[in-house]
User: Fold these one by one.
Assistant:
Number 1:
Amino acid sequence: MADSQIDSVLKESRSFPPPQAFIDNANYKPADIEQLYTSAAEDHTGFWAAQARRHLYWHQSFSSVLNDSNAPFFRWFEDGELNASFNCLDRHLPERADQTAIIFEGDDGEVENVTFQQLYERTCRFANALRSNGIEKGDRVVIYLPNIPQAVVAMLGCARIGAIHSVVFGGFSAVALRNRIQDAEAKAVITADGNYRGGKLVQLKQTTDKALEEGCDCVETVFVYRRAGNDIKMTPDRDIDWAQAVADQPAECPPVNVESEHPLFILYTSGSTGRPKGIYHSTGGYLLGAICTCRWTFDLGDQDIFWCTADVGWVTGHTYIAYGPTACGVTQVMFEGVPTYPEPDRLWAMVKRHGVSVFYTAPTAIRALMRQGDQYPQRHDLTSLRLLGTVGEPINPEAWMWYYQVIGGERCPIVDTWWQTETGGHMITALPSYTETHPGSVSKPLPGIAADILDESGQRVEDAHAGGYLVIRKPWPFMLRGIWGDPERYQETYFGMFDALTYVAGDSAQRDHEGNYRILGRTDDVLNVSGHRLGTMEVESALVAHQAVSEAAVVGRPHDIKGEAIVAFVILKAGAQADGLADELRSWVAEQLGSIAKPEEIRFTDGLPKTRSGKIMRRLVRSVARNEEITQDTSTLENPQIIEQMQAEEVR
Ligand code: PRX
């Protein structure tokens, strides 16, 4: 976040108490929330045990609530057994058999309603197909699908037989997909021929084929869902048509009940090294978080039509599409396309068309749509909305106010939810019938979430104007359980700074005298571009893998819509020509990582500011990228003259 943005956020003094009309119709009334806070404060583990008994169907109930004897490797409800797909589907039947589970709208506007009974049957058939193809409990399955109901079927189908899914966002490149398949040692990949987004064809099968060209012997089967009807190559003895695979399968599939700690999924996310980390979550604890937060934060109930605009390829799509709403038996909208196609009123048209009551999206989308003008939302009656949410990055007060006034008609509370891939579900957020909200603030920690802010020495930061490390001081059921295949990295990254009980989020934050938090940004070398995490080192590794590049430094600078934009400083190898290379490097990065990682600006330079020990001084690089005056001490630099040269370089 830029300093000017921080300033404007800090000067923000507007506050919005929950509207009485919202409270009157809320499922969780202020007294219910008060009760949750009180009981969580009295007995942390007792509170979570009670929630787990209340919200989950256990095949075998648990007696051990939290085992922290081997911190930070925590185990929740460890002698309990359950099945996640049973909790999302079977337990709603037959009562909700004909209720719509998913209102799906395709990129081209086609609408399909999938009932809970249909979702159940499709999941069972697909789970049987997985099993017929040798997939068993504990096997990893990579899912590379568009944002369509079949992605939910694939995820729940894996969960039904205890297979561990790892969804890879459809915008990731062949190389990124390959790295994830290899790291997870996936036995199968589930993909589609292709799909349309914003009217453009995305070639998923072609990318999958390319990913599998090298070093993916672990993959025995590729399931291919026909979505776009584009021409694809099917590899005999490996590729199976989804429709054929499920054709003769029974519509029942007994769920495999797993230990609560059995991994439900792996999801790769960026860290501060070049290698993405496979965050994995447990079955019982994770699902409990998905349900509790859907109920508390989104106040979801039978009257709601919920819409989370995320893609299932991100954690938001896991918790607030595939698992949370289904486990709560709530009808939701799922959308394959983009907000601006065919016109910038698409989201608002859909809110009206499907009667959406609770709407959850990212600040980057809000800013982009705000810029298009009020005429687009004003074309549509948005009075079905009762609650709005945001996630993924700090929201600037201007965008918050626009969301509140123009979209919510000053009627809908806004819940700004802070959480991470690692936390599994919301951690710090307003609760809509209860919390007075302030634009730009994520409000307070949820009941049972022991958030705090510490300084470098581990002391609590009391000063409302000082920032510090955002930490969680007690384990919670839906926290990550590890980094796939790398327990040491898990321990070091998240628990290495203070002690084995204190989870370090990697964000800096501030807390006012009322206990409201503001997120200031990352403390590590992770960028947040359009609400998506990207490691600077990942982009650097991709750049130096190009034959013309000798060295690269990647930093972020504030961007009006994306939040942060990527700026790359590149040193070329001797003899390489800069002319025409910037675009080539952009395409190269897109090929290595995916389009979201394309640098906005590339600047060629002869050197980078380095300390005498050879470390790149990122803060200086950042200042140059932001065209700031250099006020830092540069006397420890090996090559202080390089700064001026970098400042003078043409931006490409
Ligand atoms: O920096 C915080 C930012 O997004 C990071 C987590 O990214 P990811 O794991 O991709 O998950 C995104 C969706 C949960 C955090 O470390 N972040 C997330 N939500 C907010 C936020 N920053 C400010 N305000 C938020 N509401």
Number 2:
Amino acid sequence: MTNFTGLDLAQPLLRAIAEEGYDTPTPIQAQAIPYLLEGQDLMGIAQTGTGKTAAFALPLLHRLSKSGGREDGRAPKRAARALILAPTRELAGQIYACIKTYSRHMGLRSAVVYGGVSIRGQITAMARGVDILVATPGRLLDLMNQNFVRLDWVETYILDEADRMLDMGFAPDVRRITAALPKQRQTAMFSATMANTVRGLAESLLNDPITVEVAPVATTVERIDQRVLFVPKAKKRALLAELLNGDDIGRVLVFTRTKHGADAVARHLERGGVQAGVIHGNKSQNHRERAIKGFSSGRMRVLVATDIAARGIDVDGVTHVINFDLPNEPDSYVHRIGRTGRAGAVGTAISFCDIEEKAYLRDIEKTIRQSVPVFEDHSFHCPVIASDPGTTRKKQDGRNGANSPRKGGNNRNRKPQWKRNNARKAA
Ligand code: AMP
């Protein structure tokens, strides 16, 4: 498969894809699209940044445009022909934006519903019925319970970032939503990892699925220049301020483990004259949207975030990810650093590691199957922490290793074709 024409997609879709500048399908697209076009159920193991959104959106739009749907091809009032579930508002918003972009020549109706904003506009958007509904579970259930949305017309059901959905405790909501769907439907699930919980959900939702898997963790992280700086906790703020003064630092995402930590870091930066946005679970949706907008427009160079708040943020041109605290989940490390180095760009991830975090670092290195190079020549580097063996810690829930990278070692530094094309275009 060399380009999209070979994928046999509807002309209006091919036109929109060409306008987006895509000419080669990404590996997940090349693998998943043919099966999804045939109507098969599918389990896709792929991370953000691999082009997974288009992998499910393009065949979905193709099928919606070809099949007339039931009766006259339109969903009745309050109904949807396709449902895409996403764990966070940001991700739902981004999927919706992609659907709009790819379907711009198609005349399909779509809507997005998520919590944290007024429900009114969402009720209106659903009133006439839509072809595609993108939703987060909580708000969707609200709308269903109040009879503003009915799911008995859904032909295609997609769950994106199923692993996060489960991590965030949405399993009961997903079950309730699924129970309202027709049994006869196509279902696809995407997840960055195939943890046991995800496997269980897949078994309960998918019917004789095809599994496709791309971008093992190690290859995703390989394109990012990673470094770890051993530093005592008390010096982390000063180190961050110093790094932000560097010439090469452009747009920076700073991660903390806690909401309180995120606020404290942002306050510290502001005091030092660095404009920084902050997003975490306690911030209102308006605040989050403002912060992300300020960051993506370049008005604020730094955004401080917790893991969950940062899910689904798709801001181009993030030059650096700084792990102010190391995450205690190795998967989160991969998700975090994947915010830089997107669409073929070069990215840098610097992790601050104090003595108590050495066990986290060890788990991360095991998961990504590589050791993170130490930033030894930095003035804040602390050799005492570097040489300390650290404490060991218990594994949390057996998730480590669930997404162990597979094979593919011989292709290490080779950029995939779709990224080479992207880089050429950007130049
Ligand atoms: P995703 O993994 O869906 O978040 O996509 C990551 C990025 O890749 C997005 O910015 C997409 O616009 C971009 N993208 C998706 N498919 C392609 C493609 N075939 N060629 C070039 N860029 C793509």
